[in-house]
Amino acid sequence: MRGEHVSGGHMQIGEVAARTELSLRTIRHYEETGLVIPSARSQGGFRLYTEADVARLMVIRRMKPLGFTLDEMRDLLTVTDRLDAADDDLTDGDDAREQLLDRVREFEQATLDRIADLRTQLARAEEFAGTLARFRHSPDEAEPCREPGSR
Fold it and tell me: Do strands 10-12 and 5-6 pair parallel, antiparallel, or not at all (unpaired)?
């Protein structure tokens, strides 16, 4: 039954792993670090997750390749949890809500900066691959690599 959908809107870790494309070990690690705590446990002690838990894991999965630390992930999840919980309690002009939104904007800007850095790295990697391809496809036309300053 591991990984099967459980009644009551809960899923076991195997299904969550398949849906998020994260390993069981990674999901357990995120539990150990307090990023995503299973919403429930089965009578047999199996971790049970909800759609909200899956959504949290997807946020983490998207932040990881951008180089965000576990603490940064935790910070963003705390902010978004507070915003979700406060939707009914705070008005648009409330200082607390605005501070939370400012924090989200900071994460958004950090994300955009990291995406720009990744694009630069990708462009350099593609340029390098092109350099290597020139050697492979037409060795007569390829210029040999030289040390800077050499002739």
Answer: antiparallel
